[in-house]
Specification:
- A 3-stranded antiparallel beta sheet has the order 3-2-5, with no helix packed on it. It has a two-stranded antiparallel sheet with strand order 1-4.
- It is built from no helices and 5 strands.
- A hairpin with a 5-residue loop joins β2 and β3.
Length: about 80
Amino acid sequence: MWVDLQWPTAVPPEQTTVFVHVLDGAGQLLAQADGDPLGGVYPFARWTNGQTVRDRRWVPLPDQEGQTVLVGLYDRATGERLI
């Protein structure tokens, strides 16, 4: 499954990166596509305020019903989710 993301104009803290997690109906992780925007080529640390960047990720999904997709940001140093 392709997931298209569009990131806001404010630059997050330097250690911020992206998570895309797919959970089954019981909340167990089925698949994920974590990492910096644009496959690591253009991490948030290189952005300037006022930019909007389209980030496209491939998430390999098992053939299963009742999946939930979670998208957000986390601090790569601490693992803490920011949104």
